[in-house]
Write a structure and sequence with these properties.
The chain has 201 residues and is mostly beta strands. It folds into two domains: 5-106, no CATH class; 111-201, no CATH class. The chain contains two helices and 15 strands. Strands 1, 2, 3, 4 and 5 form a five-stranded antiparallel β-sheet that branches. Strands 6-8-10-12-14 form a five-stranded parallel β-sheet, with no helix packed on it. β4 and β5 form a beta hairpin. The radius of gyration is 17 Å and the shape is elongated. The model has no long low-confidence stretch (mean pLDDT 92).
């Protein structure tokens, strides 16, 4: 049964509160391995179950993605999916795998999202970032259609903005590592900008 928009809204809130979520990349919902094995995810709002599920803490045997405390899991795909998950297992702090997952948002991320590790959004269809986004590691935004950064963005590692359409930075931007601005139209920096590393232009 497919969730209604209101039920999806409730599911997003529940996923954030419980930490039972993951971010994955896809092409129109298809996994990177769909051509090889014929497996495709269900539409937004419908549960997808791994046909090869096993509980071994290793890659394979489940649905994979970047969890709340993962260091960053990158695969091919132009779309970004935010999913609620069931029976998730951490794999080497790099990624998680789960038995079941449901895509709740595509090419958008929910407000108040906290990602413990790296967040790889480069070369995807995402056009904006959520408010109050906290990324513990690096945030990669190269070659996206994002035109501005949200208020209260905190990046614990480095922030990569090369090839974006961003022309200015918010006053309260906090970057713990370096800030990469090569190939952008940013000509001035806000007075309250905090960068722990280098500013590379």
């Amino acid at each position: 049964m497919k969730l209604s928009p209101k039920q999806i809204e409730i599911a997003i809130k529940n996923a954030l509160e419980t930490g039972k979520w993951m971010i994955r990349r896809s092409n129109d919902g298809k996994s990177c391995s769909s051509e090889a094995n014929g497996f495709c995810w269900q539409p937004i709002g419908v549960w997808t179950e791994a046909p090869d599920w096993n509980e071994k803490p290793e890659c394979g045997g489940g649905l994979h993605g970047n969890g709340p405390n993962s260091s960053g899991y990158w695969i091919r795909g132009k779309d970004i999916d935010f999913c609620i998950v069931e029976n998730a297992i951490n794999i080497d702090s790099e990624k998680i795998k789960c038995q079941k997952a449901m895509v709740l948002m595509r090419n958008r991320l929910p407000d108040d999202l906290h990602v413990g590790g790296n967040l790889y959004l480069e070369d995807t269809q995402i056009t904006s970032l959520p408010d109050n986004l906290h990324v513990g590691g690096n945030l990669y935004l190269e070659d996206t259609q994002i035109t501005s950064l949200p208020d209260n963005l905190h990046v614990g590692g480095s922030l990569y903005l090369e090839g974006t359409q961003i022309t200015s930075l918010p006053d309260d931007l906090h970057v713990g590592g370096s800030l990469y601005l090569e190939g952008t139209q940013i000509t001035s920096l806000p007075d309250d900008l905090h960068v722990g590393g280098e500013i590379i232009r």
